[in-house]
Amino acid sequence: MPRQDPTTPLPHDPASPRDLRPVHLRARGAFPGAKPGAPVELLGEVCDWQTGIPLASTPTSKPDERIAEATLDLPVGMYSYKLRAGGSWSLDLDNPRTRSRDRIRNSVLSIGGAPEPLLFAPAPPFVVRAPEDDHCIVTAGVRRGHGTSLRLSWESDDARGTIEMTRAAEEDEHLFFRAELPAAAGVIRIHFDPGPNEAFSLVLAPADDLPAWWKHAVLYTIFVDRFAPRPGASWGHDPGRDRPAGGHIDGIRLALPRLAALGVTVLYLTPTILAASCHRYDLVDPLQIDPALGGEPAFERLAAEARARGIRILVDLAFSHAGRGFPPYEDVHARGLGSPFAAWFHWTTPSRGAPKLRHYGRRKDAPLLNLDHPEVRALVLSATSRWAKRGASGLRLDMAAEVPHDLAVSIRDTFRREIPDAVVLGELVPAHAHRWTSRGALDCATDFGFHDVLVDFLAKRAIPAELAAQRLARLDLDRGAPGARSLRFVSTHDHPRFTSIARKHGGPSRSGLLGLFVLLAWPGVPSLLYGEEYDLFAETPIAEPEDVWPDRMPLPLRPDSAGERAFSIIRSLLALRASHPALGRGALEILFAEGGLFLFRRTHEGEILDVAVNVASPVDMDLEDDEFPVASLLFALGEARLSGQTLTLAADAAALVLRAR
């Protein structure tokens, strides 16, 4: 097979896609405006697009150009990447392979992948197991100008076949196609037409080890300080930015009957450790539950009652930075680099003057922890084990992309040794979640891309349905982690609430229920933010991520009439999701997307549901389907009417339609 530079050739013997291979990357970049001594970094899908990998670099005879090199350990895959120096970005000028999306081009590093014009490697996200484990999904891209179709031939020990792949998505330079293959126990050999003459050997990752309870989970995010007080305490006044409201673990326990009635199966709690702030992401003692929240006794009571109601608890572990009161920080604060704990933290490397502690974001009292330091790692794993022993069924790993990969694997292994059916969820901003979920670091990852698309389409009304559908299809390509390995949401405690955004862009009558409707009808594990069941919103939201205090208001002890109506709607949708497997586990097909109209289908073992959303003028939608001619209206949000196979939707309305023969 022709070798593409920089590319390692395909192996003749199949290997697991998890196997790491040493790859020497030698790249040439042009960095106009960068200082001659500016360090060169590698960014992209080899990491997280934010934290660069330092490269050894030397100048060339041309101004602004540098040759940069590094040896990387990577599994089989195709990796988009770029070089950066002094704030200037560059393609790898010696690598002809590129991939472009929305006119943003990146170079492509191939490890055991296909040559041009095919974009494919026998590993995630191009090869993944389907949620049902009975087949795998193969995706490949063809460079534009080299064909508008793709055929896949496959062969296992006991079967073979040929499939016309279906169009899945498109980008500036590539068309993408997809096919489903039986999940054979041994090696599957596949060949593409058009494509290289040689076959690719697929060795699938082990069968899905996600526990059954997670595959049917409905998460409910609780910002602990702003959810509920201890019994009998005053409540309701918003104390303002970064000031404690007095939330208490016993208040969460008293809300369990209401949450169980809503349909919640998992409580996700923001950190409850002893910390420097009321959000508690700046640790002081990660082994101790804050006494102000009720301490160990309150958590034991919550865990016991939640377990009795069939509700599990997922705790938040945040190890990126510490706060005032953390003993090693206090020692460093007093003694500087002379402290025995100095190496526990990250320091600046200025060209002049003494190094200074690096802090989280714009803060000056939240030093970044060095997660490569052995004693810091020991503290992290000790905290992980302690929380598993407290009865949590899972943990959320904050800023998971910033955690060294081997440490993330150790965190998951440590937790699962105590709780074999536990789940480790990662707060992961990069779209290429497969890098963490396929290599033992995470079981599930947040899907911020889904959040962004629904905010743009349904809340801001800034994009048409066809662009929303296109972006969702691309996200599916990137993640390589279908079904329950994606946690999806329309609001988070670090962003303005969906309803707050909708009202800001559409006036006081606009609600966030359309967003929740699509969330609960879409694949993946859904997560609600506390108060979304009441359609809670801030009158004056702040759009700055992680500084959205108006949207972190204390939850009302009793909803108003509008909140009660919203609660009833969300409870009905969650009941439908639980009782109709197509909504919870079904395959997805986008049937129509244009203007303000979006129609998609969920199917599972003979059950078929059409899901329609309209954010434009009232419309009559033809749902004619000769194979499934019987249609019945299962659920309507807003004004919706079904006559035969014609669905009438008012503006800002949605419907679930059950199909049958």
Automatic annotation (TrEMBL):
<dbReference type="GO" id="GO:0016787">
    <property type="term" value="F:hydrolase activity"/>
</dbReference>
<dbReference type="InterPro" id="IPR017853">
    <property type="entry name" value="GH"/>
</dbReference>
<feature type="domain" description="Glycosyl hydrolase family 13 catalytic">
    <location>
        <begin position="221"/>
        <end position="577"/>
    </location>
</feature>
<protein>
    <submittedName>
        <fullName>Alpha-amylase family glycosyl hydrolase</fullName>
    </submittedName>
</protein>
<dbReference type="InterPro" id="IPR013783">
    <property type="entry name" value="Ig-like_fold"/>
</dbReference>
<dbReference type="Pfam" id="PF00128">
    <property type="entry name" value="Alpha-amylase"/>
</dbReference>
<dbReference type="InterPro" id="IPR006047">
    <property type="entry name" value="GH13_cat_dom"/>
</dbReference>
<keyword id="KW-0378">Hydrolase</keyword>
<dbReference type="InterPro" id="IPR014756">
    <property type="entry name" value="Ig_E-set"/>
</dbReference>
<keyword id="KW-0326">Glycosidase</keyword>
<feature type="region of interest" description="Disordered">
    <location>
        <begin position="1"/>
        <end position="20"/>
    </location>
</feature>
